[in-house]
Amino acid sequence: MDYNYEQTSEVEALDSIYFGDMTVIETKPFHKFSIPIKSEGFDDGEGLACHLVFTYTSKYPDELPIIEIDNEENFDNIVDKEELLTHLAEQGKENLGMVMVFTLVSAGQEWLNETWDKVKKEREERILAKQKADEEAELKRFEGTRVTVESFLAWRKQFEIDMGIPAKREREAKDKNKLTGRELFLQDTTLNESDLKFLDDGALFFLLCLTQPSNSQKMDGHIKWTNPLGFEVKRHDINLTEEMQ
């Protein structure tokens, strides 16, 4: 096999296929070049991308080319470069004896797509899991402990004790047994009789004071009455002769 011819012919074909993207780095002693690959969605700001760098050996394609990965984008904590290199080596072994760079580039492209799909799926699963956990936590916060009749009665009893309700009820019961002054007055008939007697005697005494003067005299056409209580009562327009009769 003319290795130089095979290698030169493949480089020319690859340059036509990846025109504008393929970069030839060296031609001596063997061709060395890079071809960019990227996953779907990378142009939208997501996805994975890198450059595959191939270097021919003296017996390529009967030997595997030297493969390197350069200019990785979004590989951190997502892609293990060694896994990609292992995958490409396995694909190359299946194509020994034939030019294989196009096959390896396609395999690398597919691997990035599959890897990125896994990354997106895992990311979505994490988001859904977090949403579910948040929803469950929210439900638990509102649901709380399920209430039974027994648990409610026990809670109410303790609540009333904490609020001092039983003691308040006892005080109210005692207060109900106490009579107000009005109730005492209405219930005690002796008080009624004594009060009425006091009112009757007082009224009679007052009338006697007014109608039974102990001393009177005519003053400016008026009669001045002096009663035993010490205050004066004047009666206007009363004829002293009529009153004395």
UniProtKB/TrEMBL annotation:
InterPro entries: GIR2-like (IPR040213), RWD_dom (IPR006575), UBQ-conjugating_enzyme/RWD (IPR016135), ZC3H15/TMA46_C (IPR032378)
CDD domains xref list: RWD_RWDD1 (cd23816)
Signal peptide positions (record): none
RWD domain location: 9-115
Pfam families referenced in this protein's UniProt entry, alphabetically: DFRP_C, RWD
Annotated Gene3D superfamilies: Ubiquitin Conjugating Enzyme
Domain of life: Eukaryota
Protein name: RWD domain-containing protein
Taxon lineage: Eukaryota, Metazoa, Ecdysozoa, Arthropoda, Hexapoda
